[in-house]
Specification:
Length: 280
């Protein structure tokens, strides 16, 4: 898929670090799940059944963590704690990439250099397409073209090509939320979108009350059966512990944060289950 130079490339100068997180769920569900990340974000609808998280990006704007590590940790934590996949688009002055986190499976991703030179493995794109249920012929061919040399496409243009393929899966990113834009412009564009929601917590970390419009109606069809609470909580802890240890050993704040969040979520789930069970 040949793509033109992105607007960021035409303006001259390397793009400032930024990221977008696409979630296959409604904005209300995504906003509630994202509170666990303890990061200021905005969430808006991004097509039928999709939402996009626009982070303020304090970790990479402060220079404490690279953007790719941070968003990989965030997307992993979100995908394990919720029954829907998360697609992370990220970029900085040197590279750009796309990653997919889904459930307890290992995240998969692809990277391009700033000038658009492919720097990943083609097999990753095939796994990306398969996990999202994309068309194994048309969509996969379009993604494969993004892994081939194209002097007319820089890194943000490659990410725009990924978004173009995802439109056939229902993704429709609102205007202004373009790869390569700095976080300030992304937040400004998100604020003017209809139905925008802030991701925030009450003081003390207690999530704010769910708006009445987000609560399921009494006549709603039954939801699919979920694993028992203790099982899910233990699974979160089992995944979170090695992630936290790996992040600590490698001084990787993104993975450490993801592991710590999963550990805390699992511990809270076990505690809540214990308190609600009748005693003998």
């Amino acid at each position: 898929m040949s793509t033109e130079k992105s607007p960021a490339g035409r303006r001259g100068g390397p793009p400032a670090p930024g990221a977008l997180l696409l979630c296959r769920a409604g904005a209300g569900s995504v906003a509630r799940a994202a509170r666990l990340l303890h990061e200021r974000m905005l969430v808006v609808g991004a097509g039928a059944g999709w939402s996009v998280l626009v982070p303020e990006g304090r970790p990479w704007r402060d220079g404490t963590e690279p953007v790719d590590r941070v968003v990989t940790g965030w997307s992993t934590a979100l995908a394990v704690g919720a029954p829907w996949p998360v697609i992370a688009l990220w970029w900085d002055a040197d590279r750009a990439g796309v990653g997919l986190a889904s459930g307890f499976r290992r995240p998969v991703g692809y990277v391009w250099l700033a000038n658009g030179t492919p720097a990943g493995e083609a097999e990753a794109m095939r796994t990306f397409a398969a996990r999202l249920g994309l068309d194994p012929v048309l969509d996969l061919r379009a993604l494969d073209l993004l892994t081939e040399p194209d002097p007319a496409a820089d890194a943000p243009a490659r990410l725009s090509g990924v978004l173009a393929v995802l439109t056939r899966a229902g993704v429709l990113v609102p205007p202004g939320l373009a790869p390569g834009e700095p976080a300030d412009r992304l937040l400004q564009a998100a604020r003017i979108q209809p139905g925008v929601r802030p991701v925030e917590e009450r003081e003390g970390g207690t999530p704010s009350e769910t708006p009445a419009s987000d609560r399921p109606a009494p006549s709603s069809p039954p939801r699919p059966a979920m694993p028992p609470a203790p099982t899910l909580a233990l699974a979160h802890m089992a995944v979170g512990l090695p992630l936290a240890i790996w992040g600590l050993r490698h001084r990787d704040g993104g993975w450490f944060a993801a592991g710590a969040l999963l550990l805390a979520h699992g511990a809270l789930g076990l505690a809540a289950h214990t308190l609600t069970q009748p005693r003998d």
